[in-house]
Amino acid sequence: MSNTESSKLTIATLYGQKVRAGDVGLEIEVEGEELPAEIGGAWLVKNEGSLRNGYEYYTRQPLKVDDTLSTHICKLTDNLKGKKVDMSNRTSVHVHVNVQQMTPVQVWTAVICYWMLEGPLTRLCGEKNRVGNLFCLGVEHAEGILGLCIKDLRKKTPFSAFGLEVAKYGGQNLSAVQRFGSLEYRSMRGTVDPVVIERWCRALYHIVEASKTFANPAKAVDFYLDSEKDQLLNVLLPADIRKDVESKNGYKDMIRNNILAIAEVAYFPKSWEKWGEDIENTFKVKKDKNDPDAAFAAAVRDQFEEIINPAPLRRVRLRDPAIAILED
């Protein structure tokens, strides 16, 4: 399968965002004593009110998921070696996957693909303190987000229904799409282990990229229903994370239960292709209204539509087969 969406409207264009190079952004919360207030390189530092005697270390711009990723992560973790670090339940690792260059349908497909696997993935992030955590709720503990998804799919501007007050603390934060052009993943426990952080970044990036295999969310769910159940893991997860997921007791039930919960969202548009086209057409109309030259051109085009594109004529035969007229 390949994603052949006709709509080419991207998230960056839709929201007028400055396009940023790079694949993932990181926010790493750390508590402790004598923590460095400056790291340098790709990293910036700020105080975080939810932490006790701690900092949030975050990347100044998205990092490429390539051979340089581990170098950037180790730049931070090496600076924290020897410090009295306390990774309490208040700390966590947030990963933003850049979706600016994806279409709304592609982003929705990535959302659904992650939610299908969210149960076992969240347990990999922290069985004791991340499952059901109020600051990274998954759909199994916050199904109200699904009603908001339906509301959003009825709107003409995708992802505009997810305000900070209702969506920020999801394990998959959909409010970040409109704000930053990213999908934010908040489920990983607090850690300064560079191997854990890098594996998680690569897994999330892999899921989003692999979701493009499916033309839309409905096709992703169809694939699960029509294939061997572990085939979904083969498509969406890198091999090392797939093995970890398969080691979790009840992982198949977790996936099945989540799919049952999110199916209404995945199948809500009768045609995802038409939904995408409607979004793009609405965007073009809004853009034309804000562009005087385009608005004038549109008015002229509408005025002379009947001349430029006349209605097709239909040949109608009268009783006498030798006589024919053209009727409008």
Residue stretches low in confidence (pLDDT < 50, at least 5 long) are: 1-7, 295-301, 303-308, 313-328
**Head-to-tail CA distance between termini:** 44 Å
What coarse outline follows from CA principal-axis ratios? globular
Structural class: alpha+beta
Classify the helix fraction into a percent range: 40-55%
The overall number of domains is 2
Largest sheet properties = 7 strands, antiparallel
Radius of gyration: 25 Å
Write down the overall mean pLDDT. Answer: 89
Oligomeric category = single chain
Order of helices and strands: HEEEHEEHHHEHEHHHHHHHHEE
Number of helices: 14
Strand content: 5-15%
By DSSP, the count of extended strands is 9
Any overview of this molecule?
This protein is an alpha+beta fold and 328 residues long. It folds into two domains: 11-270, no CATH class; 274-327, no CATH class. The chain has 14 helices and nine strands. The strands form two sheets. Strands 1, 2, 3, 4, 5, 6 and 7 form a seven-stranded antiparallel beta sheet that branches. Strands 8-9 form a two-stranded antiparallel sheet. A hairpin with a 6-residue loop joins β8 (314-317) and β9 (324-327). α3 (104-126) packs antiparallel against α7 and α12 (272-290) crosses α13. It is globular, with a radius of gyration of 25 Å. The two termini are 44 Å apart. Mean pLDDT is 89; it is low at 1-7, 295-301, 303-308 and 313-328.
